Predict the 3D structure of the following.
Amino acid sequence: MKKRQFLRRLGQVALVTPFLPLSLNAQDDLSSLPYALDEEEFWLRIRKDYCLKPDYINLENGYYNFIPQPTMEKYIEHLKMVNYEASYYMRTDQWDNKARVRDRLAKLVGTTSEELIITRNTTESLDLIIGGYPWEKGDEAIFAKQDYGAMKDHFQLMSKKYGIINKVVSIPNHPESDEEIVSLYEAQITSRTKLMMVCHMVNITGQILPIRKLSNMAHTYGVEVLVDGAHCIGHFDVNLKELQCDYYGSSLHKWLSVPLGSGMLYVAKEKITKIWPLFADYNDATKEIQRLNHTGTIPVHTDLAIDDAIDYLELIGVNRKEKRLRYLQKYWSDQLREVKYINVNTPKEIERSCGIANVGIAHINPKDLAKNLLDEFKIFTVAIDYANVKGCRITPNVYTTKKELDVFVNAMKTLAQRV
Ligand SMILES: Cc1ncc(COP(=O)(O)O)c(C=O)c1O
């Protein structure tokens, strides 16, 4: 990082948090760091912020992207503060604080707080739209076989409850072009199609879909677009306005590394009033997005930690993080793509993936592959065996080293040779 950039970033952190110094490592004084940290050295410093279990190499950061120590310390401070101020806090500062955090989150994702609410996770965000959509019997929805189970199940529930018809596409692991993907969805559209759900990043393969092109196509038919961005916020730079979708949900406890139970939902302003809230709210009569955000009493200290997680992301820099995650993925996947019996189930093109990819071995079923990797090589992954994807999902994080990935690459080559 250049000296000027580094200082600017520090300045940004100073502006947003009264609890300076927020540092790469709580006990370090950032101002004493060498300014031109070599890239690998920089990431080794980041690694020190993580409390890592020594039993295995964790290549499964896709479920929960656990939090670095600086965020953890702030989170505990918030928990203590809420417990100390108790009902006083809940009746006074709670709402202003939440609004402030929401504002900041909205800026991060390229929208405003008029179109964004904080939820508990992607499931809540997307099911709020699927379940709250004003369905009529015979309406049609489109989604993919490779989408997340809970959302597909919710569409099935709508089918039972309202008689909607679900059309299911299958996304190729190695598409030829964006147009191939767009045509897949377009071919399912009829005059009764109302809503199309699309993954921004397919969780089982890490494939990134061309959301803007899909949105533009759908809108020409008057079809609305709901995006599952569970794995995207904090993973790479997401600008909701550029994506042009109508609804977007994400889990902030994934790549933004907020403590568990944090998500967001974007609803384009003109769509807010058409969605039925999940829980009734006195705001129901208003046109504001808060009408969709009645939560009851929740762990409000988690909302506060969103601010700290954004501090940490901005300290690294979202573009630098994206570049690193893509680099780590390509570092291992490029070494395995051409190896006999090994199948990388994620596109090679740089714009079609980032930190996540999936890899299998032809003669080993995914469950056994995950077990072998853990038992023999102490590498923790997750097996995927459905929707044309057979392999283990490999999800490094910002603390992952190239040495760890070398262990993984060698393990895969060894296993592939055991025919
Ligand atoms: C693509 C996708 N959508 C939705 C979800 C659900 O996320 P959550 O359990 O945080 O609600 C996940 C979880 O891994 C996912 O991968």
